[in-house]
Amino acid sequence: MGKIKRFLIQGTFFYHINNRISKTFKGMRKGIDNGIALAMRKAVYSKGDIQNNKIFVMTFENSYTCNPKYIVEELLKRNEDLDIVWAIPVKKNKFKYNFPRGVRTVDRGTMEMFEEQASAKIWIDNALNCVWFGLPKKKGQVYFNTWHGSMGIKRLSGNYMWRRRAAKCNKLTDYCITNSGFEEDVFRKEFWPDVRFLKYGHARNDLFFDEERIAQAKANVLAKYGLEEDKKIMLYAPTFRDDGRGGFFNLDFEEIRLSLEQKFGGSWVVIVRLHFKDRIKAGQIQFNENIINGGGYPDMQELMAATDIGMTDYSSWAYDFILTRRPMFLYCPDLSYYEGGRGFYYPIETTPFPISKDQDEMLDQIKSYNNEEYLAKVEDFLKDKGCYEEGKAAVRSADAILKIIKGEEI
Question: Mind listing the domains of the chain with CATH numbers?
Fold first, then answer.
């Protein structure tokens, strides 16, 4: 009976009897399983005790990263009596190794995960994870959403089911942590018209305001890839394409590397970090001691902190990296196609970043780069977007969470 209950809650009942049913019914199995699972979760988890010191965390990357990571690190510094549980992929043991002492892990989508989430006082999320499985949120539970972008240009998008979950996220979210007036406007329109914003900044960006932490991040990256202390780094990290198309990373990285050395001096390497949805395409790139595959580095923020010059296309990390005031270049060979598809919240030409559509244009942009002009554009951009990052987001977020746990107002 215990196994049957587990399979019903997890949405895998008919999956486990797959071999005993007709081919026609197999095609209907997933929908039936999901429907039963939603009903079971509502019946089982709508009531029950809430553990006041328990914090449940999920990220769309399924790993210890992004804003939730840095909030949790700050919470651990407080030495409070907290039970922090983080959901990770089933049987992906490698994800467990990056978690610090003081954080338990639970397999995502399992009955154990639902029990942890259902009994947690605080939910922390950086996407739509906490509503993805349709688990009911009880009175007394508090849901924080940090999202995973910063003043990003590309429009948020998803299919019909994604939009339904976004609407549910609005109903269940108590607080959304933001970093700019622009982000507030986007979130009101896309997700959270009825949710209170906490204008703290993004915890993952606090790193860029601390020179000591920046130096440590640089040392970590250099050590990871066996690079000398004086080595300079360009990080190229494009976003994914909704239709799965590639070809946007077919650059001559060696030519770009040599161009950087000629323009800026010093010895350079290019670290290429494909989006996790595109990591399978890394085999199309010729890596060597100067062109490095950065897909395995666990923390994108550390990579950014160690980076001297950035290059991307439409990815939101450019709008984190802008806080460093270091050069960022955009390589957009499919600009018209992307703009006509996913689309932008504002014209890409209004960003401070030099834009190229092919290799030759990229080399010209590097050659003609003017730092004084670039910095002036950066300040204008941040002012226009109403950015209020100050490097204190993790502290403020942790303060708010602990106040709620202690029954105080925020």
Answer: 2-44 (no CATH), 49-205+391-405 (3.40.50.11820), 211-385 (3.40.50.12580)
